[in-house]
């Protein structure tokens, strides 16, 4: 039996943050930090932070923008990191939601029906149940790729 890749799917988060947006937030944080620590900086106890620039980020990393699930808290000077709403144990996880969205695209591209996806998910669950005790014992990650 030949195994082929008959369709692929890709999940892209819904929002994008440009270097300009990221730098504006970071530089506002720098200004706030330097103002809050003005006396300690003057005494030499704390080093002042310096502003950044979009050009520096692009030169250092090659990145012009990045996709994120939600940019609100990332661009909030008081948070500056992604935050996620905690989900109930009975709910699908964010990672699973992303995987399902990509799998649906792959199925559509391959002109396949969802029962194949159900079979793959069931197989993944069975493999996870078999591998979990090994992962707990040896604290290792194991990736299993299954093709249909």
Question: What would you say this structure looks like, in words?
Answer:
This protein folds into 2 domains: 7-93, 3-Layer(aba) Sandwich (Peroxisomal Thiolase, Chain A, domain 1), CATH 3.40.47; 94-138. It is built from 5 helices and 2 strands, in the order βαααβαα. The chain has helices spanning 19-36, 38-43, 54-61, 94-110, 114-138, and strands at 15-18, 65-68. The chain has a two-stranded antiparallel ribbon with strand order 1-2. The N and C termini lie close together (10 Å). The model is unreliable at 139-148 (pLDDT under 50).
Summarize the structure.
With 148 residues, the chain is mainly alpha-helical. It has helices at residues 19-36, 38-43, 54-61, 94-110, 114-138; strands at residues 15-18, 65-68.
List the helices and strands and how they pair.
Layout: E1 15-18, H1 19-36, H2 38-43, H3 54-61, E2 65-68, H4 94-110, H5 114-138
Antiparallel strand pairs: 1-2
């Amino acid at each position: 039996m030949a195994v082929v890749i008959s369709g692929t799917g890709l999940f892209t988060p819904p929002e994008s943050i440009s270097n300009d947006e990221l730098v504006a937030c970071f530089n506002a944080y720098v200004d706030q930090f330097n103002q809050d620590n003005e006396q300690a900086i003057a005494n030499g106890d704390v080093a002042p932070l310096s502003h950044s620039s979009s050009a520096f980020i692009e030169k250092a990393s090659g990145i012009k923008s990045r996709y994120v699930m939600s940019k609100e808290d990332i661009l909030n000077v008081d948070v500056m990191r992604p935050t996620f709403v905690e989900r109930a144990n009975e709910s699908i996880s964010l990672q699973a939601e992303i995987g399902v969205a990509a799998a649906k695209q792959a199925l559509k591209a391959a002109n396949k029906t969802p029962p194949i996806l159900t079979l793959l998910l069931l197989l993944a669950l069975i493999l996870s149940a078999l591998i979990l005790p090994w992962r707990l014992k040896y604290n290792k990650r194991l990736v299993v790729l299954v093709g249909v």
